[in-house]
Amino acid sequence: MEQEYQKVWDECLGFIRDNLTGKEGENAFATWFKPIVPVKFDGNTLTIQVPSQFFYEWLEQNYAEVLKDAIRLTLGPTACLQYSIVMDKSISDSPITTSIPSTGRQSTINRAKDAPMNLNRNDRTDFPNPFVIPGIQKIRINSQLSSSYTLSNFVEGECNRLARSAGYAVAEKPGKTAFNPLMLHGGVGLGKTHLANAIGLQTKEFHPEMTVLYVTSEQFMQQYMDAGRNGTTSDFVHFYEMVDVLIVDDIQFWANRGARTQEAFFHIFNTLHQANKQIIITSDKAPSELQGLETRLNSRLKWGLAAELLPPDVETRMNILKQKMRNDGVVMPDDVIEYIAYNINTNVRELEGALISLMAQSSLNHRDITIDLARQMVDKFVKSTNREVTIDYIQKVVCDYFNIPIDSIQSKTRKREIVQARQLTMYFAKKMTKSSLAIIGLQCGNKDHATVLHACKTVANLAETDKQFSLWIDEIEKKLKD
Ligand code: ADP
Ligand code: MG
Question: Is 352 in the pocket of ligand 1 (CB under 6 A)?
């Protein structure tokens, strides 16, 4: 006759299977649930046997919810799940028995005498002294990764190519590339957190057995101080040394403070590095500019690869906007996207902010998203942060005005209308931005500062003497200020 525990477990499995959907779910089911063997049911507690410690941790880490629901649904609200772990032969022949209610709320651990007696599967017939790992529940690690910051929605551009591809390589072979540590640095809102998180997720996809952990440096420091207070510093250190891929976000936070936290991290870093475990770090400054960090630690950061995230160029900004819109199921006219992409050039977070406000505005006031609405919105953004018109945007307005392709400004051509457009761009760039002559020249076809100066003089002269030209200037200026 079929055992009751088998029936109960089969029912749970049915529920679990229904709740793990898609190809991924199917794989997860086959990998993590098929190998489980039910071994005991006492009317309230179902005991399942899992093949290893790791297996147990993985289940608790990733499938605690679905397991809990399955048990509760099948057996009622007070039901418990208990794991029985079969230790690796090399460690011991005995099964470890521990009881983890999948809620995590209670934590009864079976004493040896309570050990399930019907564990005798897989020819493991003799279990003289089942024992308990003290504190086993503590090992549950939540990777703290956010599922929305993935690599596939991290738009690639010139500005992040190196960092992104190094990140991918690291995810493929954590700890086995020269990029250890991988240090991602760059200004605020340029995607450090997103990319670091995405590398973590990608690593888990390639290597489900690995333990990935994301922490902010602030959290790390807090934990370290708490551990010191509670006398659990060595637990703290052990915990971190167990991790396969450690991601620490924003370590500039430690600059000029937390000398002891840095010291602790330094030791963890060394242990992990020696064991070929991967370390990923983000910071708003390059290692060489990170002042106030302990010298020893700072020099470690230079061992691997420091990859910079730069502000995205206009094309990447456009792609990012389009992607965000795709994700949110929003449609907007192209000119609106262009307008935002050209005008908000500081960082991706602001770009997103502008897009979100625009969508909010339009839905609140039941207005279509038009270029006018975008202008008002961006104006607010621009004014509120005192942002100036960009050279990119000036180029665009001037080229649109004369109906010439925007890249002609960059070209070598000496055609009169192009030369004129280029000169006007330089003139307005000088007038309306804080950029130096050299920078303006660089962005307008790689010219030197003398050329820019000459252009400004020429335009000023023509404005005085040439009626047509002066009209153009007025009209373009109006568009730029619009
Ligand atoms: P940082 O940590 O450097 O301050 P974040 O990673 O928090 O920046 O990025 C800010 C926002 O911009 C996030 O919402 C992120 O998803 C988005 N973002 C940044 N770079 C990209 C990119 N290349 N593609 C898509 N979204 C991006
Ligand atoms: Mg960040």
Answer: yes
